[in-house]
Amino acid sequence: MSSPSPKTALTQFPGGHITAYTPSSTTAFSRFSGSHSPRNGIAILGKKHIAASHVSGTSAGAVHLYNWWSSTPYHRISVPEPVAPLSATSDGQYLFAGGISGHIHAFSLPAGDLVRSFPAHSKPISCFEINGDGSLLISGSNDGTVAIFPVYKLLSVSSSWSSISDVILHRLIGHESSVTAITIGIGGINSTVISCSLDCTCKFWSLMHGTHLNTVTFPCAVWGIVMDTMESEFYAAGSDGSVYSGGLAGQPWKHELNPVAWERKHGGPIVAIATINYGQNLLTASEEGDVWIWDLETRVVVKVLADKEMGSISGLVVAKGFDEVCGNGNGRFGGWNLGLYIEEVSRPMREVMEMGVALNGAVEDRGRAINNLESAMGIYEKMLELLLKEVMAGNSGDDGHGGDEDKAE
Description:
WD40 protein; 40% strand; WD repeat; WDR18/Ipi3/RID3; single chain; 4-stranded antiparallel sheet; 28 strands; 3 helices; WD40_rpt; alpha+beta; Methylamine Dehydrogenase, Chain H; WD40/YVTN_repeat-like_dom_sf
């Protein structure tokens, strides 16, 4: 097949296999082999390719690229170190890989050239998220922090910076253990960022201010988080096998949020969670090898996708199809069809970079204009000083000459 169905789920198995399902069917239609991927180690590259992180038996790292119609990788990208989470820009032209050192590595595709590597965290990177318009990369780490970066600054060759403080937008500090997943709402700079962790909490953050808004506490570790399309409710993947939900209507930051466990639960930890069908259904993948499809309105499991012969599941992504914009690494919608053109919502990354470069250019032009104005003002001040000195000197000369004439008379 040349591209995924509008609704295609990819499950990741530690044993080296990736399985593709169409949720309308209960059987797998394709399998990809050869990649021993850590958690969050698969990403969709546009509509035609798949990327998977790979750690060999010697602990050497690589990223494998697949076509949808081939079960084996067609290209191997060398990486500076073993990497786990992957995330790609919506046009599939750039790929971010999170290293065990805490570095983020950015690659251009399909060649796999390394664009930039930089230290983002003090411990291994555990998860990624790119916001709906593709302008921000958000990373989570085993150090318990979340970092937010403007994508164009990371990818633009004309963007020069020597320290991480020159490019980071916010660093969110608050979790006491590893960050397992991140999601972000719509609304641009007014969006809310949600992070979940092995410390049994989900934390809500203001993107605009980079401040903590609220914390939800669970009876177990949380491996994934997603919101519905209207951002009125959140759904969390519990390590106890339960789905937890909570309301976000009104101003949830001003009161305590109490998550509710759904009645039916998996037999093992839920390692990934996603939404499909324009938010009508929820997908949950358990470590034991099951993928359940839920009806969100009734909270009933309507279909079970099982592939237990492959072993435990370590991750799940939902491929972007032609008639809906859905899922990335943690299952969050990449955008919503609210009467806006998808081309505008999923702007090609080169355009985002061009906008960033243009913005930097405008800032630099403004800075040069201010510097020129300051220089001109300085010159005028010096000229004024010289003129005043000449006038004062002339007045002094006139006064002295007039005094001699009076004396002669």
